[in-house]
Amino acid sequence: MAARLSLDARVDLGGLAEAARAAGRLGVDTEFMSEGRYRALLCLVGVVVPGPGGSGEPRSGALVDRDGEDRVELVDPLDAGLDPTPLAEVLADPGVEVVLHAGRQDVALLRRVWRTKVRGVFDTQVAAGFAGFGAQTGYGSLLNDVLGLRLAKSASFTRWDDRPLSPEQLAYARDDVAHLLHLADALQERLQSSGRLQWAREECRRLEEATDERDPWLAWQRLPRIAQLNPRARAVARELAAWREQTAAAEDRPVSSVLGDAPLVEVAKRRPEAPSALERIRGLQPSTLRRRADAIVAAVARGQVADPLPAEVVERPDSNPADVPAIALSEALVRARALDAGLAYELVAARNDLAQVVASVRRGAPEPPVRTLKGWRRDLVGGELLELLAGRRSLAVDPDGRLQITRR
Fold first, then answer.
1. Is 408 exposed, middle or buried (CB count within 10 Å of its CB: 0-12, 13-18, 19+)?
2. CB under 8 Å to 360, separation ≥6 — which residues?
């Protein structure tokens, strides 16, 4: 059944949820607006469920033989009368596969707005990295490469919070979700053939805990130049950052519009005791002083009596120049093994992961809790990496220019 190009009538979410359960899977894509807000606003949810005869065995990796057209629906979360419970319960059902593309933001939004878990995630962007494509391949590019489809992207950057949505927006939203299940089928077939399907599923499970919630009392740790402040000033910065987060959340506006990072750090450094003293701090706008001077000074006062925050003495994993050659050698090994396995390198390791491993080996410390040394990554290259750094493996270049890895 084709998607309606109107949001005038509400979707039968009970029937949609029943169809998803019967098929054992559904595809989901969201449209949202984040500009000018504290957190993104969920504006539209596209859902696709297999048509008649299309339930198949989606988790086996075999392509599904579809006898009928998939059902595509557009759900309006801005409808005050919408009860998302039937669909939210399906998303939380671990027996139903939820297909997404680059779904971290989708999962975070659905978890927060619909107060649900999202289980059984299969992310086609993640899967693409295991199938020989780039780890950040976009949806349109992947559809073209895998299914030979081209999508128009004319409505990607539009006001999704406006109502009514235009026919162009609705058609775009429909196309964005309509092919998700077909794409997942094709990728699962490739991964099943290469023996990488379970690895991809393991990686997709990490997305199930995605969140866009922020702890106000940890926000100070992301401030620039925070390490340059003394313990008392850091305590003040924590209070200011927490107040800023709470104010921005209450007013649904970006934190930078409440108080910028640079003036916040400067206020923490100077610790003014009266609103008049704020006028001498660079970067504080007159409008901010008019609206928020008293609140800023009150936050400073709370920080002055709070426990100081001493700096943690932590060695940055890439701070020792002697580690640089070993990090480069480690990266060569990981890239070679990722290439051999047909995986995107970014799925296996990041430079910071390798820097932590190298630093821990140099210090004789326990293994760091990095992803490269866990699960399928350890089987692929993590164990071999530790052997390389222990001197039990060597690297060389063969006459064809390929990297040779040998046991010493």
1. exposed
2. 366, 367, 368
DSSP string, 237-252: HHHHHHHHHHHHHHHT
**Which residues does 65 contact at the CB level (< 8 Å), separation at least 6?**
53, 54, 56
Residue in this structure with the two tokens 């094709």, named with its chain if needed: 186
pLDDT in tens for each of the 408 residues of the chain? 333 445 556 789 999 999 999 999 999 999 999 999 999 999 999 999 998 755 444 433 323 333 458 999 999 999 999 999 999 999 999 999 999 999 999 999 999 999 999 999 999 999 999 998 988 899 999 999 999 999 877 666 789 999 999 999 999 999 999 999 999 999 999 999 999 999 999 999 999 999 999 999 999 999 999 989 999 999 999 999 999 999 999 999 999 999 999 999 999 999 999 999 999 999 999 999 999 999 999 999 999 999 999 876 545 555 688 899 999 999 999 999 999 888 999 999 999 999 999 999 999 999 999 999 999 999 999 999 999 999 999 999 988 888 888 988
Report helix angle 261-270 to 286-305, nearest 10: 50
| Integer angstrom CA distances of residue 113 from 43, 90, 177 | 11, 15, 20
End-to-end Cα, the chain, rounded Å:
62
pTM above 0.90, yes or no: no
The counts of H helices and E strands in the chain are 17, 7
C-beta of residue 148 within 8 angstroms of C-beta of residue 161: no
Task: Give buried/exposed letters for 157-191 (b at 16+ CB in 10 A, else e).
Answer: eeebbeeebeeebbbbbbbbbbbbbbbbbbbbbbb
